[in-house]
Design goal:
mainly beta, 22-stranded mixed sheet, 5 helices, elongated, disordered N terminus
Length: about 425
């Protein structure tokens, strides 16, 4: 799994089609509608063939409706776009609507002003789309103007190792160089990870590298746990070659972690280059600020994190103070108000159920241990009848500690939880 962010190659705006394909569909259907209106209606099959030849695609429609009065529009049913010889269609849609004014039709491609574009249940296959784009000659991609915007319902984007489904997209209007606003909902799937989302999105302009802000709700879910959150993400967005990069990204999260035994609210702020590549979301290097409650401490850290089929954390920083919900420290440790420096290293299941390595130091006291977070949280939240020793494997060293009125010096405490295997050499 990658945790380091590598610089993506970002050519012209047409690379955005590798993720959405919506602009390619709009422009292709624009050309089809012009041809439809300039020839007899029975010529739709012929026009599909001619347009497909020009694009290097086989285009099929199970049926078509058109309207010439008012603003002309064409509706295609059971639309399929597929590269000859390819086993998978790059695009399917139950229904595609393109509406555009007569002025645009008379311009024969010099004017890309459209009234509205709609896609019902489109399915975009990213590998098939990439194979087709690799055969296309380079050229400038023009951004069409959509007066009444774009609407997508029940959409899907399929890739080899992830997919988006239930896509609902509403763009009220689109124009080159103008701010763009959109409402986007759907669900990211990379089993066992699921991320349903409902976001409001704003762009300074519909171009690669433009500033983007996304605000709304999402839930990160796995087997036996879920984390609903409100998020605010902003930064310049670059898209290319199946990668998405926002650098720098500013992320604010207000969330609760739910599992069978835990309900933990927290607020997290993060800053750094955000990369989505090979089904992994990563921040590297990242600056993090955590505000917790209960057993979640307040902390600051730097390092790297990644989330995909696995969770990776490589963090070092300071815990501001010993949380009151944690077991009380014996004197003289309890008298110190120094922050707790820590280093955390984890690479395992996304529910944090695998073994993590932790080093903590406060003044002259140091802990070097391994643990499973769910078991440690259960112990922290247990009542006094539970075990007095935390579920750790490791060693605590401190120069002195007072227990039951007795002062002990040069203390070493070894923890040997049987549920945690020793580190491999």
């Amino acid at each position: 799994m990658k945790t380091a962010a590598t610089e993506p190659k970002v050519p012209a705006l047409h690379r955005l089609l590798r993720i959405t394909g919506a602009a390619a569909v709009a422009l292709a259907l624009f050309a089809l509608l012009v041809g439809w209106l300039l020839q007899p209606p029975r010529a739709v099959g012929f026009l599909l063939d001619r347009l497909g030849d020009g694009l290097g695609l086989e285009l099929h429609a199970g049926g078509a409706d058109y309207r010439l009065r008012g603003t002309p529009q064409l509706v295609l049913h059971a639309f399929v776009a597929q590269r000859p010889g390819d086993a998978d269609a790059l695009l399917r849609a139950e229904r595609v609507l393109v509406s555009l004014p007569w002025r645009t039709i008379r311009a024969r491609g010099d004017d890309l002003t459209m009234q509205r574009v709609e896609l019902d249940a489109p399915v975009l296959d990213v590998p098939a789309l990439q194979r087709w784009l690799a055969t296309r000659p380079p050229g400038e991609t023009r951004v069409p103007t959509l007066r009444d915007g774009l609407r997508i319902v029940r959409g899907r984007i399929r890739n080899d190792d992830w997919q988006l489904d239930g896509i609902e997209l509403v763009v009220p209007a689109l124009a080159a160089g103008a701010p763009l606003h959109a409402a986007l909902g759907g669900r990211y799937l990379d089993p066992p990870l699921r991320i349903p989302f409902d976001l409001a999105i704003a762009m300074t302009r519909p171009e690669n590298g433009a500033g983007v802000a996304a605000v709304g709700a999402l839930t990160v879910e796995g087997d036996g746990w879920r984390m609903p959150a409100r998020v605010h993400l902003s930064g310049p967005l670059l898209v290319g070659d199946d990668r998405v990069r926002m650098s720098p990204a500013r992320l604010g999260v207000s969330a609760r972690y739910h599992s069978t035994s835990s309900d933990l609210p927290f607020v997290l702020g993060a800053h750094g280059p955000l990369l989505f590549d090979e089904a992994v979301w990563s921040l590297d290097p990242a600056t993090l600020v955590l505000e917790g409650s209960g057993t979640i401490p307040d902390a600051r850290a730097r390092g790297a994190l990644a989330l995909g089929r696995r969770l990776v954390l490589r963090l070092g920083g300071d815990i501001a103070s010993w949380p009151q919900a944690w077991p009380a420290l014996p004197p003289p440790l309890s008298a110190s108000d120094s922050p707790l420096g820590f280093a955390l290293d984890y690479a395992g299941r996304a529910d944090s159920g695998d073994i993590a390595a932790l080093q903590v130091r406060r003044d002259e006291t140091a802990l070097d241990a391994r643990f499973r977070l769910p078991a440690l949280l259960d112990w922290l939240e247990a009542d006094a009848a539970g075990s007095p020793l935390p579920p750790l494997r490791g060693i605590l060293r401190t120069p002195r500690v007072e227990i039951a009125g007795a002062l002990l010096e040069g203390v070493e405490v070894e923890f040997d939880d049987p549920g945690i295997a020793p580190p491999t050499p």
